[in-house]
Fold this sequence. Notes:
The protein is mainly beta. The chain has 2 domains: 42-118, Immunoglobulin-like (Sandwich), CATH 2.60.40.1220; 127-323, no CATH class. It has 3 helices and 19 strands. It has helices spanning 2-16, 20-31, 257-272, and strands at residues 42-49, 52-69, 73-78, 80-88, 96-104, 110-118, 127-133, 143-148, 152-153, 158-161, 171-172, 177-178, 183-187, 216-219, 231-236, 242-249, 295-296, 306-308, 321-323. Strands 1, 2, 3, 4, 5 and 6 form a 6-stranded antiparallel beta sheet that branches. Strands 14-13-8-7-18-19 form a 6-stranded mixed beta sheet, with no helix packed on it. The longest helix is centred in the last third of the chain and has 16 residues, at 257-272. The termini are far apart.
Amino acid sequence: MKRLLFLAAGVAAALCACSSSNIETTLQEAFGVNKRASAPVFLGAHTVSAAEICFQFSLPVALVSARFSPDMDVESVVEGTDVVIAVSGGAAAGEQVTADIIVEDEYKNTLHVLTSFRTRNDRIPSFVITEIRTETSKPKGEFVELKMSSDGNLGALRMFVATNGADAPTFEFEPVEVKKGEYVVIHLRTYEDGSINEDGTDVSAASATDAQPTARDFWLPGAVERLRKTDAVFFLDQDDAVLDAVLFSADGAWGSKTYSSDIAKAARLLGERGAWTAPSGEAPAGGIPAPEDAFSSANTTATRTICRRETAADTNTAADWYITVSSGATPGKPNNTGVYTPK
């Protein structure tokens, strides 16, 4: 007991002689606490290649154990602040995988991480957005249509809709093989039975309104609004490269106060990456597209959709687009070439 009292008295005296910045160090030395007793922090995971996953931490760590679902075998490990695990087997390209790993730092502080990621897909096809419906008339919902320019696999391809959140994908594809010339339609609402995701070989499985037996249809669950007349739609690969985009405005502005900041953020992203330019084809003023650089969606309705000029070159400008005639929407089929003319 006397020894503890002497120790406490000694620590108190030392603390009185220390500045506040040195108190933590004095306590650590007095009680034998490691100077870096805080555990590492997990910062995120991403695929490096088809066979390598990188797990990032705030401090250098060593791998204690790793399990994956679907099962994958660990072939090798590189440790440090970036723990790179080489794996083999078990998951398709672009498939979502759950990782359950335990790491420890040099002081034996451990961290248990349960996270998910998508395996690397190096076969994402080239494609263009070809048609967008911005309004709904039940049972016809908003949709985004793509046309494949090459064969490939859609796994891990992400679709963003600015007003639905510019930082999180509205839709992410599971692995599915597609062919050049194939149309893919992402329906943003589900109203009916028969709204089946056609991620297999049968592209005629869906029977809901707007599904085509020759196109591949995907449906977002629920009937909530996920797309507006003033918006930005864009697709990113696993390296965050913009593969195609459309920017449109109904009133020459970035919409209501609720969504304007998200659309402006998306416009900046598309401008900085050259995915949308001014109508002249030149970089917009300041490199950031303004509302007047967007395609005008003022005259769209549930049957008058935003359509790409499918036989023209892609210029990443509003000139690539037109509003089709009333009752001219063609989800899953070549666009109606009739152009709506306001009366």
